[in-house]
Every structure is written in structure tokens, then in C-alpha cells.
Amino acid sequence: MDHWRSHIRTDPEICHGKPGIAGTRILVSVILDNLAEGFTPGQIVEEYRPLTLEDVRPAIAYAAELAREQEMIPLR
Predict the structure, then answer these.
(1) Which residues pair with 9 in a beta bridge?
(2) Res. 1 pLDDT band, cuts 50 70 90
(3) Residue 16 region, left (φ>0) first, then alpha (ψ -120 to 50), else beta?
(4) Is 14 left (phi over 0), alpha (psi -120 to 50) or beta?
(5) Staple 41 to which of 20, 34, 56, 57, CB 3.0 to 4.6 Å?
(6) Radius of gyration of the chain from Cα atoms?
(7) What does the pLDDT average to over 5-26?
């Protein structure tokens, strides 16, 4: 699922090059943190007006791809 590639951008001049939603200064991590706290995509969009619902799913897809690529250390 590569549809996130057209939504997620990194630019050293914007937010220190951290992955963010294209055309905004909203970081992928902000979206993921809000989801982890229990906010719905609709609530996140209400809180961060430049976002659309179509921006939330690519942030999740981006994180999923990163998780697949990382070797995880087993938790005990």
C-alpha cells in the first residue's frame, strides 16, 4: 500500500525534515499520537483544520510500512 507516498513529505526546511502531511506543517507523529490517545480521525481533522480525512489514512499506512521494515526487539 504505497498511496501514502503522495501525501507524506519530508523537507529539511519544514519541521526539521520530519515526515509530515504534504502542504501542511502537521507531522505524521502528531496524527499517530492522537490516534494512540483514542481520538477518531474525524476528531483529529476537527482539531487540525488543514487536515482532511484523506490525510489520516496515509499517515497510518506510512507508520505501518516503517513498522514492517524495522527489526523489533521482543518485549519481556
Answers:
(1) 20
(2) low
(3) left
(4) beta
(5) 56
(6) 13
(7) 86
- Is residue 9 packed enough to be buried (19+ CB in 10 Å), middle (13-18) or exposed (0-12)? middle
**pLDDT, average across residues 54-63:** 91
- Indicate whether 36 pLDDT > 60: yes
Residue 51 is placed in which grid cell? 487536515
Burial class (CB in 10 A: 0-12, 13-18, 19+), 57: middle
The whole-angstrom separation of Cα 51 and Cα 42 is: 10
56: enclosing H helix or E strand: helix 53-69
Long-range contacts of 21-25 (CB under 8 A, 24+ apart): 21/50, 21/51, 21/55, 21/58, 21/59, 23/50, 24/48, 24/50, 24/51, 24/55
